[in-house]
Amino acid sequence: MKHGQAGKRRFSRQRVADNVAAYLFLSPFLAGLVAIIAGPMASSLYLSFTDYGGFGLPEWVGLENYARAFGDPRMWTAARVTVTYTATAVPSVVLFALLLATALNRGVGFLPVYRAVFYVPSLIGGSVAVALLWRQVFGATGLLNHALNLIGIQHQTSWIGSPSTALGTLVVLQTWQFGSAMVIFLAGLRQIPRSYYEAASVDGAGRFQQFVFITLPMLSPLILFSTVMAMIGALQAFNAAYIISGGSGGPADSTLYFTLYLYQQGFVNFQFGYASALGWLLILTIATATAALITGTRRWVHYGESA
């Protein structure tokens, strides 16, 4: 009996030692989680219910910031611009990446080279350098107008400076970053058994039919994943609009992303309480949109053995 109790105590001490070691290894991550994510999120949630200008103590105002947001016309403008941008940029990225991956999967030589080249824009992203380059491409004297002039189309105005085309240039910039989705699709295509296509070909199915009835269903989980990630990224987009518009969201608020308006309220107007409320509205919007997208795609997403 004593031997059994001693064994239990040794096992208990060993278990405690293992738990302590595990938490020691996890401590950097847990500290970062609290200091960088959980802590600031809790602070911003509290500030969203206050009137705080960055100095002094926050003044509790309850739901006043949220009520102000729903009655703010410029907030609705930013929401409309962001939704329009997301609704156009996300399908463009996913469709372009899927078509290019399908083309590269058809026995193209030097595939690793093409894959690396097409992935580079995703690594660069919408950085400051790229955003500045975009101004040179779509400016009044930019490369696009110069190319149009060479083929006899006279276009002298800036694509970025026109309210009707400014947002479109940012959609093109986002579409240009299709590399990540393309690599994911290309990996998925390599996992689809060739026997499926061979059987379909024997039954008389053409390439388009094979793409619709074999490729798309087998890649549907990856299409959903890429769509969700692209949507979340688009709703949080900031850098390109900030650099290209100079932080104003112009011209005529045509590139006023929701995040850019949040930035203006917090770091230009020093209304941190209101900016925090806008941030939480964005979080709730992203969570709702993600849940709706995942729920609404259950009928066409097929989790097969090769997906």
Secondary-structure topology with pairs:
Blueprint: H1 2-47, E1 50-51, E2 59-60, H2 64-70, H3 73-104, H4 111-124, H5 128-138, H6 143-150, H7 166-175, H8 179-190, H9 194-202, H10 207-235, H11 239-245, H12 258-268, H13 272-296
What's the CATH class label of the largest domain? Mainly Alpha
Give the overall shape: globular
Task: Tell how many strands the DSSP assignment holds.
Answer: 2
Helix content: over 70%
Residue windows where pLDDT falls under 50 for at least 5 positions: none
Alpha-beta content class = mainly alpha
Please state the average pLDDT score: 86
For this structure, what is the CATH homologous superfamily of the largest domain? MetI-like
The CA-CA distance between the termini, in Å, is: 55 Å
The major pleated sheet works out as: 2 strands, antiparallel
Tell me what portion of residues adopts beta-strand conformation: under 5%
Strand order of the largest sheet: 1-2
CATH topology of the largest domain: MetI-like fold
Estimated radius of gyration: 26 Å
User: DSSP helix count?
Assistant: 13
Count of domains: 2
